[in-house]
Specification:
By secondary structure, the chain is of the alpha/beta class. The protein is 34% helix and 23% strand. The strands form two sheets. The chain has a nine-stranded mixed sheet, sandwiched between helices. The protein has a two-stranded antiparallel ribbon with strand order 4-5. The chain is globular. Mean pLDDT is 88; it is low at 248-263.
Amino acid sequence: MSAREIRFVYSTGDRPKLKSPYLVCGFPGSGYVGKLAVDHLIEELRAKHLVDIYSSSFPPQVMIKPDGTAELMKNSIFWWQSGDGSSDLLLLTGDSQPANPDSEYSLAEEILNIAEQFGTQGVFTLAAYITGVFVDRPRVFGTATDLEAVKAFSLHSISAMDSGSITGMNGLIIGIAKLRNMKGTCLLGETSGYVVDAKASKAILETLLQMINVRVDMASLDKRAKDTEILIQTIEQQMLAGRGEGRSPLESQQPQKPRDTGYIS
């Protein structure tokens, strides 16, 4: 691929006929909060592969798959047709976000070009709201590109953000979607930012499913959330044990109270 080139590899077969689907994006970021949520959706809904997107702006490396083979880093879009009156979906997951702003804009435009071909009615990005502290019950924060959507957040126990910014693809895609007359919403799960946080993933996924009227089995994500709890408990115990010998590196990074960073990954 030449500099900043984007390449698409579509699945063979007929293109799906979707009815005003939502595009739901789970890019890798802090805590892998959004990616875990969308990967769970893809697995539980048995979503079908639509296209792989390769870009020279992704890190110059290959990913080793469970079967031992290697493949360039990519983003992938899957599709799911409800068949029961609930929302059809386009689901985006990825190995990486682009490395520079120009490439982020280019990739966001190309993703939305695909979404437009299917008559997408709205775009959701799932992300992390980084506080720097561990919590038992992660809150869900949100922002949207139209005021009516923000006003409806209270119906789903979403805390509306009123300051800060959302950097990277999670913010960019909903911003460009607005220019294309698509509604955009970003849901953010509260997380420390120190661990892969399936608890935060579960929180935003439960909220999303309620908003789009889709049901999935949460058992496997529940297990991963419990694994997150065990990991956090282990870290906290190590921190407590280390107080007599001086503060641990992780403890020294933790603020005494949650800091409102406004972001966001």
